[in-house]
Amino acid sequence: MNDYAIIIYPLVFIYGIVVGSFLNVCIYRIPRKENIVTTPSHCMSCGYELKWYDLIPVFSWLVLGGKCRKCKAPVSVQYPLIELANGVLWLVTIYRSGLTAEGILYCLFLSALLVLSIIDFRTFEIPFGINVFIALLGVVRLCTDSSQWFLYVIGFLLVSGIFGIVYLLTKGNGMGGGDIKLMAAAGLLLGGPKVFLAMLLGCLLAVVIHPIRMKVKKEGSKLAFGPYLAAGCVLAAWFGNELIGWYLSLW
User: Which residues contact 221 (CB under 8 A, 6 or more apart)?
Assistant: First the structure.
């Protein structure tokens, strides 16, 4: 490992877990329509306003034994897991894409997908604001790679158009509006080939995993499609060029 990697990768991971702490706030507050910026972080049981030393990602949870400092109520293990997950997502993304405009945009994209997936899994709804945020990342990507603008425009229309047709044919029963908006925004960021790959991978994961969950956990046939599409987007962002190149080499 060269000196660049020794310095950059730990910093990326640290920034990732710090942002992961904010993602926990989003996951909790967005479905409840609470302010994610101005309201101070506090214990959900006793209302104790957390101090800065209670908010150190992962470390504070471990030191406090997963409990509130004041009332000793349990604090969900979700908090350190989301922080760690975001750190890993950022680390792998920068490893794959480098510290580039694409790499930074993909880091923010994957953080948004993490929040979106947890919320959709719990509520069966994809927050509109998260789709808007992803779309804004797509606009930035379009500006930073303007010579390939047509790929991003195609990406915006391709999968969202397919999903839109399914939505119309099934009168909204076969596809949610949030999924359509998600893939339009993701397509503007990933481009046509990668977002189509993301759709295929997301559908494949849903076909494989959801029946298992139905059998093992007695889940109903209704599924939150967002997490599967998000996983497809992650894989496409990380490995899309290689997978697409491999497929084209077969012809």
Answer: 214
How far is the C-alpha of 67 from the C-alpha of 62, rounded, in Å?
Answer: 9
pTM, whole model, 2 decimals? 0.94
Parse the chain into domains and list their residue ranges. Answer: 1-99, 125-251
Using CA atoms in the order 223, 224, 226, 229, what is the torsion angle rounded to 10 degrees? -20
88-137 tens-digit pLDDT: 999 999 999 999 999 999 999 999 999 999 999 999 999 999 999 999 99
Name residue, tokens 């104790």. Answer: 48
User: How far is the C-alpha of 21 from the C-alpha of 56, rounded, in Å?
Assistant: 8
Q: CA–CA separation, 123 vs 27, rounded Å?
A: 11
Distance (Å, whole) CA 50 – CA 55: 7
Bridge partners, residue 42, by sequence: 49
Q: Quickly state the pLDDT bin for 1 (edges 50, 70, 90).
A: low
